[in-house]
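Go through this:
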Amino acid sequence: MAAWTTTVADIRSSIEHLYHRLTKTPPTYMDARLIADAVQEAMVAICLERGDSRWQFLRAECQMDCVAGQTYIDLPADAIRVIEGTVRIPDRDATLYATSLEALLASDPAREVTGLPALYAFDNAGGDNLLRLQLSPVPDQAYAVYCYVEEVVDTAENAPFPLWMKGMVTDLSTAIAMRRLGLGGSGEYMAAYLNASRDLAGKLGHDGPQFIPRQSTIYTSNLQSRTPR
């Protein structure tokens, strides 16, 4: 059966072969490192700039545990957005609804009201650049809270991602790598990437890049400081 995924290592290898054909020599260690960085940068750029909830490979379910008296829960570090309407406590057949942080705090300034959480509001976790959900009422016991989030793509060497993305990632990676290696031809690969990007945009039903910072409908926290360069 044909594989429906590819990896960072696969694309890196194809660019290294191109490098060898153009220069007649294998890439040095530093050039190989630059090529690997270009692949990872391209993957992150595509997923952030063209992020869309219909790209299901970016969506994952996560569980967050809270205890009595804990006013908040933090999302996983890779989460960039919560899928609205998916925050829930299955054991209690309860769905939590989003509100603004201002409204949540205004309704219970001292955070003294306890019970089964029914509302959440987005906050940040200080310098950790994590999305935090403030809960109301404050949990009166331990609960397991589940939700669906959109995640930053895994750029590890052998992490799989959908095969249909391979052409776009390869073209953008090659454009970045060729420019930084000073080999020329970067514009040709960038044009190929943009053409494929426009074609995909039509299929997905939107007409251009949609930059996705780390966000929810109400609260936004910039992810760019953690994006690999």
In short: The chain has two domains: 5-54+153-213, 58-151. The CA atoms of residues 178 and 185 lie 7 Å apart. Confidence is low (pLDDT under 50) at residues 52-56, 206-229.
